[in-house]
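Subject: Sanity check before I submit

Could someone independently write out the structure tokens for this chain? I want to compare against mine line by line before I put it in a report. The sequence has 178 residues.
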Amino acid sequence: MSLPIPELGDLEPGDEVSVEDIPHTPMQHDHSIARVLALQALYEIDQTNHPTGEVLNGLAARTDAELGEDITQYMHKLILGVQKFRPVIDAAIQPFAPEFPVKHLAAVDRCILRLAIFEYGVAELVPMGVAIDEAVSLAKQYGADASPRFINGVLGNLMENSDLIMRLHATYKESGEG
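---
Independent answer below. Compare away.
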């Protein structure tokens, strides 16, 4: 079935045509919104050492729109999971970013890596491709110019290491979380 072609009337080459620019805000998936909020919370925790509960309460108070239950639950799962498995996640990052100790990586990059590794590598909440794509998207939005490439490289190499991924999954399951 072909779509009908609209009639353009008596247009001639060189005629001016007005085009209306309609602003469009792309819809964000609930988990994408939860990731952004989790990144903000993880960054605050990383930079200030504020207690996780205090940061979660402050984040809820600062959020203008009421968050849906799905967003809130997923955000909490990400924040609490990254915090609980942070030493294991940081140890997994180090071989794939050998130039600097994890603590010397840019704070935003460090938090994005932790989030993606928890989401796929530890808890298996999303497929590997989704974790990498979402992390690169966060890096484009919040990181430095080189962040997306750095994040993609570290995660791509780390996620190809099936032995490491299996160990991360096992750590999660042994903790009683999985």
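---
OP: Matches mine. For the report I'm noting this point. The chain has a mean pLDDT of 87.
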